[in-house]
Write a structure and sequence with these properties.
Blueprint lengths: L3 E4 L4 E4 L7 E6 L10 H19 L3 E6 L17 H9 L3 H18 L15 H13 L3 E4 L2 E4 L36 E6 L15 E3 L1 H13 L3 E7 L3 H16 L4 E7 L2 E3 L2 E2 L10 H7 L2 H9 L7 E3 L1 H27 L9 H19 L4 H20 L6 H18 L15 H23 L3 H13 L2 E5 L4 E5 L1
Parallel strand pairs: 3-4, 3-9, 9-10, 11-13
Antiparallel strand pairs: 1-2, 5-6, 6-7, 7-8, 11-12, 14-15
This protein binds one RNA strand of 76 nucleotides through helix 1, helix 6, strand 12, helix 9 and helix 11.
RNA sequence: GGCGGCAUGGCCAAGUGGACUAAGGCAGUGGAUUGCAAAUCCAUUAUCCAGGGUUCGAAUCCCUGUGCCGCCUCCA
């Protein structure tokens, strides 16, 4: 079995062979931290989180770098307009760096909730200004960039393969169609490496060309090569960044290093809301903090993974409701399984017979799905097929060996937990971490269940149902099973 | 105007030439189980946007048309 990845650069699915045996370097474009993260961030970073998790599952030693863009770049286009971070900072009446800190924390808070494992290195653009200046100088020295009015631009016409990622040709672009042509540029498609700071600009640094700030594309080139080397394995990002951002990164990096840049380019698709792209400038975005009020982070994660990363998803309450129920079903089975696991009492640490083969089959099916360009939708289907069979097993009257139970549980932990991140370590019934509250809550519920059982024995159904209904209103679901009465939180 | 993508059951969504008599989730219907529920199980629901072509064989490849979306300005 070999992992295959769709490479935007070659426009085909390719076998994944890392640059250095056993190791993978991956760089994913991070957020610009000037607002709370939204559903779009969730899709992107969940997708790449699973990529990293699966690569690690396959045994690769992965170094995952994801930048934090903490210098604003510009509101209107790459070369004009106001710095987004400054603009927002003024609005909120805080220092730009204060704003950055605030939203960076917000970002991590939400990503942690979504169960994304943090990157190994999270470099910040403002922490790499000298390197960015150095790269711009190098490009000038090589004759691929020029200074104009204290700004520096990359000379696109010097590069024969500019456009190889996005499939664009310079002369086919309708320059100036939507933005005004900057007269400082030799060619309309030239892009800024360094911009002169106009009066009143706050976030600025000294440079050989005067006081200014770096162009947007430069940071990713600099930080990826610094931490992953001039050539590295995977570069990921949103599909909307293929052009110009990633195209420009390639131009800068490959010109400077005279080496291939990223070997596999992965692009995740967009989130739409009512069929329309969700964009910062469109103002129709749903923040994760708002979404979390209605749905659990794991439900959102499951919803995202139910569609291939390269397909768009439409965010809707109906869609999330459906996902919520599906995930609940999976969790129910796992909880039942784990309850049974501690109590079956019979020995035999490994699965034998039918189940040995079945588990092997499910593992293979899961990995085959993931090997096909991280097909999480199909991988989830494999888990649901398993779930049906596990439910049948748990419902049957036959004795189940501890080995089977524990191997099924470990399959859920490995694939549902470690790889997809949708199966929690513990299936907890409580919200509270406080041991005293936890204990009291449990005792109270048990007391009510005991009372209800007495009523049931006396066939006083009305009273018994009243307790069940009341508990249900409080979010506690009672399930009368053959052997005992179980409860769980909704 | 240029470049790219998508169109699969009521909804969401895999599958991209032959075990597809099309995965999986949600919803519906009928049944089993239950004091009633909950949970679970069983059964049931599609010929793949339209038309043409290639092929022994197509949802899957090619052409035409229709509709939707993204990029060419910041954006995950």
């Amino acid at each position: 079995m070999t992992l295959k990845i769709y490479n935007t650069l070659t426009r085909q699915k390719e076998k994944f062979v890392p640059f250095k045996k056993g190791r993978v370097g991956i760089y994913v474009c991070g957020p610009t931290v000037y607002d709370h993260p939204h559903i779009g961030h969730a899709k992107s970073y969940i997708s790449f989180d699973v990529v990293v998790r699966y690569l690690r599952h396959l045994g690769y030693k992965v170094r995952y770098v994801q930048n934090i863009t903490d210098v604003g770049h510009l509101t209107d286009n790459a070369d004009a307009g106001e710095d987004k971070i400054e603009k927002r900072a003024k609005l909120e009446q805080v220092e730009p760096m204060e704003l950055v800190e605030m939203y960076m924390r917000s970002y991590y808070e939400d990503m942690d909730a979504l169960n994304n494992i943090r990157a190994d290195i999270s470099p910040r653009a403002t922490g790499h200004i000298p390197e960015q200046i150095e790269l711009a100088e190098k490009l000038i020295d090589k004759g691929f960039a020029y200074e104009a009015n204290k700004s520096v631009y990359f000379d696109v016409s010097k590069l024969k393969d500019y456009g190889k990622l996005s499939g664009r040709k310079l002369d086919e672009q309708e320059s100036g169609a939507r933005i005004e042509i900057n007269p400082e540029k030799k060619h309309p498609a030239d892009f800024a490496l360094w911009k002169k700071a106009e009066a009143g600009h706050i976030m600025k640094w000294n440079s050989p060309w005067g006081v200014g700030f770096p162009g947007w594309h430069l940071e990713c080139s600099v930080m990826s090569m610094k931490y992953l080397g001039e050539t590295f394995d995977i570069h990921g990002g949103g599909i909307e960044n293929v052009f110009p951002h990633h195209e420009c990164e390639i131009a800068q990096s490959e010109t400077a290093n005279e080496m291939p840049f990223a070997r596999y380019w992965m692009h995740n698709n967009m989130v739409t809301v009512e069929g329309q792209k969700m964009g910062k400038s469109l103002g129709n975005f749903v923040t994760l903090k708002d979404a979390f009020k209605l749905f659990s982070p794991l439900t959102i994660r499951f919803f995202v993974l139910n569609t291939h990363y390269s397909s768009p998803i439409d965010y809707s309450n109906e869609g999330l409701d459906a996902a919520d129920k599906g995930l609940e079903r999976l969790h129910n089975t796992i909880r039942n399984l784990r309850e049974r696991l501690g109590s079956s009492g019979n020995e035999g640490a490994v699965a034998t017979g039918d189940w040995k083969g079945k588990l092997e089959k499910y593992k293979n099916n899961f990995e085959e799905a993931m090997d096909e360009d991280f097909n999480t939708a199909e991988a989830l289907a494999v888990l649901f097929n398993l779930t049906k069979e596990v439910n049948n097993l748990l419902n049957s009257d036959e004795e189940i060996s501890e080995g089977v139970l524990s191997e099924v549980d470990s399959l859920y932990r490995t694939y549902g937990g470690n790889v997809l991140g949708i199966v929690p370590e513990k299936t907890v019934q409580h919200d509270s971490d406080d041991a005293d509250v936890y204990k009291m809550e449990e005792d109270l519920i048990k007391a009510l269940i005991d009372t209800r059982n007495e009523l049931r024995e006396a066939k006083q159904w009305e009273q018994a149902d009243k307790i069940r209904d009341k508990l249900s209103e409080l979010g506690i679901i009672i399930e009368d099973k053959k052997e005992k009465v179980a409860w769980r939180k909704k």
